[in-house]
């Protein structure tokens, strides 16, 4: 579902960023809680199976050691040949027990270390809100459209700010009148998980000068970002594609 509003776009974007961040944090917390519960259940089952097997592997040679040693001690008149046979069983069981302990210690030493989690992606909405505030004297949002479900972008927040700052600066006119821009934030792209930010100059219904557009594209290409020019029903627009994080869909 897409929400569209009019000239109060900047205020809506500010409020939407807050509510969207809260909803994303709640979904993330719920997902992490469910994953943690599943991991705990699996770890508990694995631990129980491991301890059960360990109990058997250790108790068997221990039972042989205590059993045969006790028989030799409780029967001092036991024939030497029989006593030797029992003691051989004790030594063999002790060797088996040592091998089991060595195997356990070796497995513990080479156990895989937990993989560090990747840092969460960057939410573009707070950065857009900040830039709107910084350029409030030159730009205002005349129309804004934001998808209810947006992936985060893998772009670090500092790089994202610089890229968006360059785009906003291209729409500003030094010493000129305040311009109205249309802003759209959606998901899509080649893999369906990119964050697409569409900018459209609403004042005069004209696009950016060709020289400004070329310079802007060159700057963004250096940051491995793609800027496409598209034609909408009410005029040209620019689409900045940001690499997005892939989110698993809830069942």
TrEMBL record:
Its EC number is 2.7.13.3. Keywords: Coiled coil, Kinase, Phosphoprotein, Transferase, Two-component regulatory system. It catalyses: ATP + protein L-histidine = ADP + protein N-phospho-L-histidine. It comes from the Bacteria. Residues 80-107 form a coiled coil. One of its GO terms (molecular function) is kinase activity. Residues 46-113 form the Signal transduction histidine kinase dimerisation/phosphoacceptor domain. InterPro entries: HisK_dim/P_dom (IPR003661), HisK_dim/P_sf (IPR036097). This is histidine kinase.
């Amino acid at each position: 579902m897409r929400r569209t509003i009019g000239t109060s776009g900047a205020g809506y974007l500010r409020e939407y960023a807050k509510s969207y961040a809260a909803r994303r944090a709640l979904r993330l917390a719920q997902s992490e809680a469910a994953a943690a519960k599943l991991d705990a259940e699996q770890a508990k089952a694995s631990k129980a199976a491991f301890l059960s097997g360990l109990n058997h592997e250790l108790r068997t040679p221990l039972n042989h050691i205590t059993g045969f040693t006790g028989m030799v001690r409780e029967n001092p008149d036991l024939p030497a040949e029989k006593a030797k046979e029992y003691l051989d069983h004790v030594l063999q069981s002790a060797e088996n027990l040592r091998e089991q302990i060595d195997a356990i210690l070796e497995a513990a030493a080479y156990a895989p270390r937990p993989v560090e989690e990747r840092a969460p992606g960057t939410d573009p909405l707070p950065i857009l809100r900040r830039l709107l505030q910084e350029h409030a004297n030159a730009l205002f949002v005349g129309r804004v459209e934001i998808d209810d479900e947006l992936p985060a972008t893998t772009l670090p927040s500092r790089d994202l700010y610089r890229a968006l700052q360059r785009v906003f600066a291209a729409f500003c006119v030094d010493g000129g009148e305040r311009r109205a821009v249309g802003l759209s934030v959606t998901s899509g792209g080649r893999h369906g998980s990119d964050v697409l930010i569409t900018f459209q100059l609403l004042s005069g219904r004209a696009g950016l000068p060709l020289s400004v557009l070329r310079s802007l594209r060159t700057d963004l290409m250096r940051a491995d970002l793609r800027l496409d020019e598209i034609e909408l029903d009410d005029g040209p627009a620019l689409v900045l594609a940001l690499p997005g994080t892939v989110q698993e869909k809830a069942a």
